[in-house]
């Protein structure tokens, strides 16, 4: 039985304005510096996880004192990023959905890894999203409801070599049984016509990016 939403805060781009997405029922995981961000803004992480190589010893002690639980790992002898460790722990809770913040920023390698990690959630049939100040990302292998979240554009990018049977309803530029291939930009910069739209696909994995400048 799903246990509710898990919200992961990693150590990338973070803004206090994102704190308003939290609900009282959320299970909150702070990954590395993300845990310190939460604590500095009066939020108690249910779980802090990571190697904590990006915080000072004093800050790590603060994280230990003010988190409900902490899991630490060696910064050298580990195979997963802090974000993936957090995602694994989140998936072990069988959540209804996962929202990840602080997984975008100046490190393109970390950002792309985090985007690809959403496939791990999809394999477990768990809805997973990524949000920052300019983007809201979701991934679908079947059908997705795209809601107006205040972002101007909706772009569709294949995460597999091709995505087939793409049908859009409620968009400025509709598609019917279309195919998108990796490396092509046909699906970039669409717009919703109303409060929501529907994306349906037959095969492949499709990344849905709501964005604004």
Protein described:
- This protein has 213 residues and is α/β, with parallel strands linked by helices.
- The protein is 21% helix and 31% strand.
- The protein has helices at 33-40, 57-66, 82-91, 108-123; strands spanning 5-9, 27-31, 47-50, 70-72, 97-101, 127-131, 135-140, 143-147, 153-158, 162-169, 178-181, 196-200, 206-211.
- It has a nine-stranded mixed β-sheet with strand order 4-3-2-1-5-6-7-13-9.
- β5, α4 (108-123) and β6 (127-131) form a beta-alpha-beta unit.
- The longest helix is centred in the middle third of the chain and has 16 residues, at 108-123.
- It is elongated.
- It starts with a strand and ends with a strand.
Write the layout of secondary structure elements.
Blueprint: E1 5-9, E2 27-31, H1 33-40, E3 47-50, H2 57-66, E4 70-72, H3 82-91, E5 97-101, H4 108-123, E6 127-131, E7 135-140, E8 143-147, E9 153-158, E10 162-169, E11 178-181, E12 196-200, E13 206-211
List keywords for this structure.
31% strand; single chain; 213 residues; alpha/beta; four-stranded antiparallel beta sheet; 21% helix; nine-stranded mixed beta sheet; 4 helices
Summarize the structure.
The chain has 213 residues and is of the alpha/beta class. 21% of the residues lie in helices and 31% in strands.
**Total strand segments:** 13
**Percent range of helical residues:** 10-25%
Largest beta sheet: what is the strand line-up? 4-3-2-1-5-6-7-13-9
Oligomer: single chain
Q: Any low-confidence stretches, pLDDT <50, length ≥5?
A: none
Question: What average pLDDT do the residues reach?
Answer: 93
The value of Rg in angstroms is 18 Å
The biggest beta sheet, please? Answer: 9 strands, mixed
Class based on secondary structure composition and strand pairing: alpha/beta
Number of helices: 4
The first-to-last residue Cα distance is 39 Å
Order of helices and strands: EEHEHEHEHEEEEEEEE
Shape: elongated
Strand content: 25-35%
């Amino acid at each position: 039985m799903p246990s509710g939403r898990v919200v992961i805060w990693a150590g990338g781009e973070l803004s206090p304005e994102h704190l308003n997405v939290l609900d009282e029922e959320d299970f909150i995981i702070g990954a590395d510096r993300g845990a310190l961000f939460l604590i500095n803004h009066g939020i108690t992480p249910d779980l802090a996880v990571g190697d904590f190589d990006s915080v000072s010893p004093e800050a790590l002690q603060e994280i230990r004192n003010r988190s409900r639980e902490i899991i630490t790992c060696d910064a050298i002898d580990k195979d997963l990023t802090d974000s993936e460790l957090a995602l694994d722990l989140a998936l072990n809770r069988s959540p209804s959905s996962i929202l990840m913040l602080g997984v975008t920023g100046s490190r393109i390698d970390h950002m792309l890894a985090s985007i690809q990690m959403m496939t791990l959630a999809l394999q477990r049939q768990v809805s997973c999203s990524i949000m920052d100040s300019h983007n809201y990302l979701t991934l679908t292998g079947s059908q997705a409801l795209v809601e107006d979240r205040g972002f101007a554009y909706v772009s569709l990018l294949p995460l597999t070599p091709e995505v087939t049977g793409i049908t859009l309803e409620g968009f400025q530029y509709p598609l019917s049984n279309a195919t998108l291939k990796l490396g092509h930009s046909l699906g970039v910069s669409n717009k919703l016509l109303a409060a929501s739209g529907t994306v349906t696909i037959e095969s492949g994995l499709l990344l849905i990016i709501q964005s604004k400048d």
